[in-house]
C-alpha cells in the first residue's frame, strides 16, 4: 500500500508538471501568433533554465549523506530489534545513495574545465 501511494504521488507530480509546461507553451504560441513582441525578461520567466552544475553537486552530496544515514539507521535497527523495518530503511538508503552518486557524476561531467597553468 505504501509503494502504491508513493508511486501515485510521483506520477501525479509528473502529470501536473507536464500540464503546467503545456499551458506555458500554449501561452507562448498565442502571444507569437498574435504578433506581440516578447522582451527578454518575460521570455526568461516563461522558459525554465537548466540547473547549474553546482546544484547537482549540492543535491548529490545531500542525497548521498541521507542515503548513508538511512543505511546506518537501518543497520542499527536490524541489530537492536531484528525487524524487517531495518531492511526497509537500508533499501531506502541505498536508493538515495545511488541517486546522490548519479547527481555527483552529473556534476563531474558538466562542470567547466579548469584553466591550465602556464609553464
Keywords:
119 residues, mainly alpha, 4 helices, flat
Describe this structure in words.
The chain is mostly helical. Helices cover 80% and strands 0% of the residues. Helix 3 packs antiparallel against helix 4. It is flat, with a radius of gyration of 22 Å. The chain starts with a helix and ends in a 9-residue tail after the last helix. The mean pLDDT is 83.
How does the SSE layout of this entry go?
Layout: H1 2-33, H2 40-46, H3 53-81, H4 84-110
Helix pairs in contact: 3-4
- Principal-axes geometry comes out as flat
pLDDT averaged residue by residue: 83
The value of Rg in angstroms is 22 Å
- What is the chain-wise order of helices and strands? HHHH
Can you count the helices?
4
Give the uncertain stretches in residue-range form: none
Q: How much helix is in the residues?
A: over 70%
Count the E strands.
0
Find the structural class using helix and strand composition: mainly alpha
Q: Per DSSP, what share of the residues sits in E-state strands of 2 or more residues?
A: under 5%
Short description:
The protein is mainly alpha-helical and 119 residues long. Helix content is 80%, strand content 0%. Helix 3 (53-81) runs antiparallel to helix 4.
Amino acid at each position: 500500500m505504501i509503494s502504491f501511494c508513493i508511486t501515485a504521488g510521483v506520477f501525479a507530480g509528473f502529470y501536473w508538471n507536464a500540464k503546467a509546461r503545456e499551458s506555458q507553451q500554449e501561452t507562448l504560441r498565442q502571444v507569437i501568433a498574435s504578433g506581440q513582441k516578447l522582451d527578454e525578461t518575460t521570455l526568461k520567466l516563461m522558459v525554465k533554465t537548466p540547473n547549474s552544475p553546482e546544484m547537482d553537486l549540492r543535491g548529490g552530496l545531500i542525497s548521498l549523506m541521507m542515503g548513508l544515514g538511512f543505511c546506518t539507521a537501518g543497520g542499527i535497527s536490524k541489530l537492536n530489534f531484528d525487524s524487517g523495518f531495518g531492511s526497509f530503511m537500508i533499501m531506502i538508503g541505498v536508493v538515495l545513495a545511488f541517486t546522490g552518486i548519479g547527481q555527483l557524476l552529473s556534476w563531474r561531467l558538466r562542470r567547466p574545465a579548469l584553466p591550465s597553468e602556464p609553464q
